[in-house]
Amino acid sequence: MFNRILIANRGEIALRIIRACRELGVSPVCVHSTADADGPWLDWADETICIGPGPSVDSYLRMDRLISAAECTHADAIHPGYGFLSENAEFASVCRDSGFTFIGPSPEAMALLGDKVSCKRMARKAGTPVFPGTEGEIEEIDEAITVAREIGFPVIVKAAFGGGGRGMRIVRGDDELADAVESAAQEAAAAFGNGSVYVEKYLEKARHFEVQTIGDGRGNAVHLYERDCTSQRRHQKLVEEAPAAGVDPEKRDHVCESAARLIGSAEYGGAATVEFLMDHEQNFYMLEVNTRVQVEHPVTEMITGVDIVQEGIRVAAGEPLSIRQEDISVDGHAIECRINAEDPDRNFMPQAGLIETFDPPGGPGVRLDTHARSGYRIPPNYDSMIGKLIVHAPTREQAIARSLEALRQFRIGPMKTSISLHRRLLDRPEFRTADFDIKWVERWLADET
């Protein structure tokens, strides 16, 4: 096991990693920007070190400064958390070349699965269901037109690298395809430094279904079942739950097992999430693999009892997986609401400033992962998420009721947060019945305006 881990991140995920380190007997070290100099999570680290000014490009995205920080603090491993450099194969390589263990997959496995084209090829071999489409990146527009006609419109042009809705275009006819490929490639090149795009079938109505896996880097992997992330806005998840409601058990088991085979075939080490879309007939199609711990990992921890962050650290330290597939089962239902400092009534405008009131909820089955507290000043430089409210109960209906009560008790001020939106969302008939698709929140909000 490591002696000291440098946490190359901030906020609630930094605090989450600190807790995992403490339980493993590892000394946690935190970096921070000048904007985060008073970050509450820093109080719990054994050592802190400033790596630059507020903008991420000058601090949390500076590989050289992170490596220097690891050297200065005598760390022997670096945990990237999520976001920032967590899915950057070059950073994983730089860590390794500099003598530090990157807590996550090898650069080779990350590059292999991070490239959606090569990932789809591997998925086919592993028996993981994928969308019909081009075999690789588009080189000639005629090829894209031929494939689109074969699989039928609508299709979607997607960036081979990256995500979050960038480098994506929905196409409904031949005459739109050339412009869509060109504009998607330009956007992908600007956002991700790589303009490769491909074409695949587009589902008009689908649910977002993802499988949590953990690999040991030696060809072995297990799955921790699935999460439903259908409730989202502009490709950003608002509510996640596990397990997914109303899914046929045999189909669920098949897709979960295929996801574990895919991760094992890549000789992947650490936590990975294989994302799928599911159509109305419960056919699954793989979207991509996220090569890091996910924001929504706590819902899976709550239903399986597996500490995903600790397991990732153990694997990186060279230990075998502490869990076998036959040991993993689902207990009850969990729901996670992302609490963002933004105003839902003003087009989700981010809210920065001093938190004067912070009264968190409690009670059986209620977990709050947050770095915020009264007196903390939210900086304007970073993502607006300030916490995750996770609730666990024996059934989905009970989990919804428990979540609603926890949201009623949760008070943050004076800034606006997404708490009010979550209270309305969880009480909507579409959510209660799980009769929804990935566009349902946007339709509902549009109808209200």
Account of the 3D structure:
The protein has three domains: 4-103, Rossmann fold (3-Layer(aba) Sandwich), CATH 3.40.50.20; 130-201, ATP-grasp fold, A domain (Dna Ligase, domain 1, 2-Layer Sandwich), CATH 3.30.1490; 207-448, ATP-grasp fold, B domain (D-amino Acid Aminotransferase, Chain A, domain 1), CATH 3.30.470. It starts with a strand and ends with a helix. The protein has 14 helices and 22 strands. The model has no long low-confidence stretch (mean pLDDT 95). Helix content is 34%, strand content 26%. It is of the alpha+beta class. The strands form six sheets. It has an eight-stranded antiparallel β-sheet with strand order 13-12-9-10-11-14-21-19, with helices on both faces. A five-stranded parallel β-sheet has the order 3-2-1-4-5. The chain has helices at residues 11-24, 63-72, 89-97, 107-114, 116-126, 141-151, 174-192, 249-265, 297-304, 308-316, 396-409, 419-426, 429-432, 440-448, and strands at residues 4-7, 27-32, 47-50, 77-79, 101-102, 155-159, 168-171, 197-201, 207-216, 221-233, 236-242, 269-278, 284-290, 333-340, 342-343, 349-350, 353-354, 357-359, 366-370, 377-378, 385-393, 411-413.
List keywords for this structure.
single chain, 449 residues, alpha+beta, Rossmann fold, Dna Ligase, domain 1, D-amino Acid Aminotransferase, Chain A, domain 1, 3 domains, eight-stranded antiparallel β-sheet, five-stranded parallel β-sheet, 14 helices, globular
